[in-house]
């Protein structure tokens, strides 16, 4: 998002109606920027898949989760620091991204189960950071897919042990069967959770100029 400059906001008038309303009603400049970035990223992804973006209508589910009316397209957005990430598929999904910072011991006490705490404290420093951020990402992504609050996940959702980045993990928690996949890019940790992770995942890392060029037609 740090590549967004004033000229890019020419795309604001073409934003999806619901997102444009959210943008105009927000009093936080950072929130405005996030809404704008999410909107253009979504439109970019839809346009690349040859969807008509001129008639997109967003609706919201029971947990306030948006989806695209009539096109059977589910998506989820997350942002951390300067990165915003979009997951888009036919399956419902939750996605979360977190930038690695100093470990917050209060988060461990509030959000980690006894099993997770025990595993965390058995690891060396580098592995500890990996497990800490992946655990938080995992719980946030689960909530964004299934609903609930992160505090409720403390003893009901256990982050997989010995996970491998880019490998799908099949899990059953709280009576729900689902799949998860983890990625890491620099200090950014990413987790995607869905009922079924596609066998082929297309990943693009973009800057604003690439998105602008595609949408500025």
UniProtKB/TrEMBL annotation:
Keyword Nucleus: no
Positions of the 4'-phosphopantetheinyl transferase domain: 93-167
A GO BP entry: lysine biosynthetic process via aminoadipic acid
GO molecular function: holo-[acyl-carrier-protein] synthase activity; magnesium ion binding
Pfam family of the protein (one): ACPS
One cellular component term from this protein's GO annotations in UniProt: cytosol
KW Transferase (keyword) present: yes
Keywords assigned by UniProt, alphabetized: Transferase
Family designation: Belongs to the P-Pant transferase superfamily. Gsp/Sfp/HetI/AcpT family.
UniProt-listed PANTHER family: L-AMINOADIPATE-SEMIALDEHYDE DEHYDROGENASE-PHOSPHOPANTETHEINYL TRANSFERASE (PTHR12215:SF10), PHOSPHOPANTETHEINE TRANSFERASE (PTHR12215)
Protein name from the UniProt record: 4'-phosphopantetheinyl transferase domain-containing protein
């Amino acid at each position: 998002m740090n590549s967004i400059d004033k000229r890019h906001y020419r795309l604001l008038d073409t934003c999806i109606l619901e997102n444009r309303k959210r943008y105009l009603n927000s009093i936080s400049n950072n929130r405005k920027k996030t809404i704008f970035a999410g909107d253009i990223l979504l439109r970019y992804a839809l346009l690349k898949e040859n969807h008509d973006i001129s008639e997109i209508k967003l609706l919201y589910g029971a947990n306030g989760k948006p989806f695209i009316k009539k096109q059977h397209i589910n998506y989820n957005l997350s942002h951390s620091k300067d990165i915003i990430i979009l997951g888009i598929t036919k399956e419902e999904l939750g996605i979360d991204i977190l930038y690695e910072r100093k470990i917050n011991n209060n988060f461990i006490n509030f959000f980690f189960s006894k099993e997770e705490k025990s595993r965390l404290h058995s690891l060396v420093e580098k592995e500890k950071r990996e497990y800490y951020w992946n655990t938080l990402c995992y719980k946030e992504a689960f909530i964004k897919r299934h609903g609930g609050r992160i505090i409720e996940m403390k003893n009901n959702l256990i982050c997989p042990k010995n996970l491998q980045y880019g490998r799908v993990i099949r899990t059953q928690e709280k009576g729900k069967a689902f799949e998860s996949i983890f990625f890491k890019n620099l200090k950014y940790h990413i987790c995607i959770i869905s009922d079924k992770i596609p066998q082929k995942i297309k990943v693009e890392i973009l800057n604003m100029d690439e998105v602008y060029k595609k949408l500025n037609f």
